[in-house]
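Weekly structure sync, notes
Attendees: PL (lead), two postdocs, one rotation student
Agenda item 3: pending single-chain targets
PL asked that the sequence for the first pending target be pasted directly into the notes so everyone works from the same version. It is reproduced below exactly as submitted, 290 residues in total.
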Amino acid sequence: MAQLNITLNQEEILQLLSNDRNEVFRKLLESSLNSVLKAESQEQLKAHPYERTLDRTDSRNGSRERKLQTRIGTITLNVPRHRNQPFKTMLFDNYSRSEAALISTMSEMVVHGVSTRKVSQIVETLCGTSVSKSAVSEVCKDLSREVEDFRNRPLTGPYPFLTIDATYFKVRENHRVISKALMIAYGTNAQGHREVLGFETYPCESADTWTQFLAGLKKRGLTGLLMITSDAHEGILHGISKIFPAVPWQRCQVHFNRNITDKAPKAYQAGLRSELFEMFSSKTIEEARK
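Predicted structure, written out during the meeting:
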C-alpha cells in the first residue's frame, strides 16, 4: 500500500497548540484523512503522482472538495478523481453509516415531540456541528412520507383476527394544546403474526369516526375476517355493524377484566384478577366454568 504522508509541519502544530485544542485535533484529522485518500488513489492507480510505470491502470483527474462534519468541527477533504475509473474509498461508507445514525436520532427526537429548534441545539451540543432548522424540517418531511406510505399501504392476504382500540394524547394545533383520539388496528394473519394495519387521528371517538376508520381499512384490502375484538364503545359497535356486519365481535379480555375488577372492592380485586386469568387460560369451556 502507498505510504501515508501527514502534511502538517512543526510550526503549524505549535501555532495550533497555542490556540484551541479541538482545532489541533481537527487539523490533524483533516490532514490524516486527506493522506488516506491520496494513498487509496495511488493504490488504485498502481502508481505515484507523475510516475511512469507499466503497472499504472489510470491517471488522476484533479479532485473535488467534500465537507465532513465531525465532533471536533468541519473538515475539508480533497477527494481524488480518476480519468477513466471512479475513485473508490471506504472512508465515506463509515461516514454514511454515522450520518444515517444521526438522521435516525433526529427522527426519533421529532417523533417524541422535540421542536426543530431544540433538535438543532441538541445535535450541535452532542456532535459539535450545527444542523439548520431547515435540515431538521427536511428530516421531518422524509419521516412524514414514510409514515404516510406505511399508513396507506395495500393490505394483502387475509387477516382472520382484527383488534381495534383508541387512545387519547395531547397535540399542539394552531398554538393550542388539545386532546385527540388515535385509532389503531392490529391484524393477525393466517400464519399467526400480529402487525399494525393502520392508524388515524380524530377529534374524538364517535360512530362516524369509527365508521370512517374501518371503511378505510376495508378500502385498502382488509379481507378474511373471522372475528373483531375491541372494547364495547358504542361508536365501535356502530362502525362494525356498518362496515363488517357479518363478522362476529368479541369484547376485549383486558377491558372486560378491568370493568369487572373496577366494580369490586379493592380488597378483592387482586384475587378476582387471578381467577379471571385462570378462567380465560382454560383449554375448554367446561374447565372455565368450574
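Discussion points:
- The mean pLDDT is 78.
- The longest strand covers residues 161-173.
Action: rotation student to compare against the earlier draft before next sync.
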